[in-house]
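Archive entry. Fields below.
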Amino acid sequence: MKIRTATIDDLEMIAAVEAECFPAAEAATKEEFAKRLQHYSDHFWLMFEGEKLIAFVDGFVTDEADLTDEMYEKAELHNEHGAWQMIFGVNTIPACRRHGYAGELICRAIQDAKKQGRKGLVLTCKDRLVPYYAKFGFVNEGVSDSAHGNVVWNQMRLIL
Ligand SMILES: CC(C)(COP(=O)(O)OP(=O)(O)OC[C@H]1O[C@@H](n2cnc3c(N)ncnc32)[C@H](O)[C@@H]1OP(=O)(O)O)[C@@H](O)C(=O)NCCC(=O)NCCS
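PREDICTED_STRUCTURE:
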């Protein structure tokens, strides 16, 4: 499997994978991804099987320690010199799940954040995924302020 960062040319594929992975209320739209790619395409980690995008991880960098709903929409808040690599999305298409692909992308994001001298990574997730992210070293900080998609989210942090 090939892993690389993104360019604006990947927009269609990224939006299609997102729509396959999340209910409409939680999925980022194509317009949102266009803004994200414009501001932080180097903070997308894409996995390809041949030419096909099968999984990706994305999120911007900020000095804010906690992940807020505003961050999902306001790509312009990305700060390339910030302390924390946020993780907004972790997606693998249904046909390719349980092969460790999301795990590989998470490890790559951790590796890059380390190389870039970040303090760590922050994500939010539903209860059922807390043990999954804990395997990579993320620690659950409890319920986050996020009301994204009307779901209860836990904030988890990995300190490098
Ligand atoms: C959550 C999600 C990203 C996981 O993607 P994935 O590529 O299947 O992830 P992995 O393969 O790394 O891990 C998934 C499970 O498969 C297991 N697994 C990994 N490699 C495996 C293998 N070779 N054989 C069998 N199981 C394996 C992992 O241990 C993990 O098990 P666990 O859930 O019991 O911890 C994917 O299910 C998804 O896109 N879901 C919808 C969107 C979503 O909820 N995203 C998370 C938002 S916080």
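CURATOR_NOTE: Residues 39 and 76 are 6 Å apart (CA to CA).
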